[in-house]
What does this fold into?
Amino acid sequence: MSGQSTYEPKSAITRWMDKRLPVSRLVWDSFVDYPTPRNLNYWWTFGGILSLCLGVQIITGIILAMHYQVGPGAFASVEHIMRDVNYGWMIRYIHANGASMFFVAVYVHMLRGLYYGSYKAPREVLWLLGCVIYLLMMATAFMGYVLPWGQMSFWGAKVITNLFGALPLVGKPITIWLWGGYAVDYPTLNRFFSLHYLLPFMIAGVVILHIWALHVAGQNNPTGVEPKSKADTVAFTPYATVKDGFAMSLFLIMFALFVFYLPNALGHADNYTEANPLKTPPHIVPEWYFLPFYAILRAIPDKLTGVLAMFGAIACLFALPWLDTSKVKSMRYRPQAKLYFVIFIVACVVLGFCGAHAPDDQVIPGLSAFQLLDSNINSFVWLSRIAALYYFAYFLVITPLLGLRETPLAVPESIAAPALSHPAE
Amino acid sequence: MLRKVTVWAAALGVLGALAVTPVIAATTHEEPAKVHWSFEGPFGTFDQQQLQRGLKVYREVCSACHSMNLVSFQALGDPGGPFFEAKYKKSSENPYVKAFAKDFQIDDVDTDTGDKIKRPGTPADHFPAPFANEYAAKASNGGAIPPDMSLLAKAREGGPAYIYSIVSAEGYKAPPAGLTLTPGQHYNIYMPGDLSGAWTGDPNKVPIGGVIAMPPPLADNKVTYDDGTKATQDQEAKDVAAFLYWAAEPKQDQRKQIGLAVMIYLLVFTGLLYAVYRKVWKNESH
It folds into this structure.
């Protein structure tokens, strides 16, 4: 949508600057004059919310790094932040809960993209960059969780780094390389701290590319029909900025609710016990945002296959633009796809629940069922197998076939056509 | 708009559900007893009298075996703490804190001779640990290390209610016939664990609870409260649990206070933004 620039420098200084480094022009064209579809709903506000999350994490993280000590004093230094640093408790709780908020927002953002077909031409690169950001976020969050050096930090690090050990031939050297030794220890913590500081800036870099790609292709919208005329769009400022601002503020209310009233609700009690390599916690569980992948990993008895399935689950997202055969972008006009999409969300939530439970626990307590292969059918491991099967089928079977077989509803001529059926108040 | 509010409410609901779902349910032990705490809810604050009583229980009973390495004496005089008094701006100048600290002997080094010495504590010192190191702790406690108490109330599922339940009269029970305990082990129904290995009875009726190395620490009149409160075991258990929650989360009062201001600010700000949003979009269809 990068049309002709309408920026006109008003003062002598801005005219001088505009000939040398047109920063104001860039901002004007990207965030003021930039045309956005007039029918964007609240699901489209999560991009702005995500940049807010990234900013909050970077700022609080930089302050935390001023007080955090890597090494044997790591656990105590986090408590020093909680007890002795002015408002340190607030900064740490914002950072720790901020990670969860970041993932809430990114999952909504991704599901929005899935539902409205935002990954389809001409936005494939935009989607791929988003997937890269998501991968970087996962790596950052995982390494950040290790830093307090609590029991769950340590054992989580051990479980996840050991996954690489499942790879044939290169597995063992890779784990030793990741650990910086022969076990998870302070050298591991030290490199994780370094990388945890580096990756957010890489995320910021890819975010810039993501926004660039967005501004080249233009935003998708709930109809999935590309803007055709001026009637289809409104200027980014004030229309999108005020709507994004309102949504961000609502999001901050939820954020603050956790920081000030439920600061430890999303964490695990065991992480308030210092790491002890000799004492394995009874249940090692990752943070909630990794639980679906953890469930996929454990659904498969063979370790290597499990690891491959887990990474495959993310690879599906990368391949999605080429797996979807539908000519229609938005599921608003694809009633069948809508149904499969809802089941997909249910499958993801079910996987999350499975990841939180021990594999052999009963799903329905007290119900005795029969044994199938290695486990009882009434166990979380079987439930996660069913859900994981649907997860993969959704991407690899349903999405490609449905696009060829379904009969979509009539798609509107233009954005303005249905938008104008909700006339101005 | 209503539909959008519903969407947000649903999102909040899902998160709330995530937050309160007891994630791991495999262990079999009694759920911690319901206790009323002064610090419950969004407006609850610490009860200073209770913290002082709990501190006394910690000092006279628990501290014989349990360290509290992360807590400094001056923290006792910070807002919300057991010795806080508004007229002492710095907790290190609080006379109660100073007097309390002075009663402890702290390891130090004589800077003139380099010899190891003991000196009276100052507000900046932390509670000294009862054992020189974890080997000493282990040797004195039949192989079990008494956990550090600085964060105990946050490091256990159930928090202060769990601590209360363990040390209250309801926690320790005579082991049921068929449960073999080794010397130094005690049976407690609130302790998480798996007793199937020590159980010789009906394999479908393994008793709930677990074993704990700590003998029952509290009893009626184990301490004498300065404020005249009757020192029943139940009272002592509640007070020490409340104190340990303070020790783990000393900034709780401050957090909720700031939280209230933040929530009011955000609600007003969000309302204003909504008004602006309506005004801006008034003449645009969408």
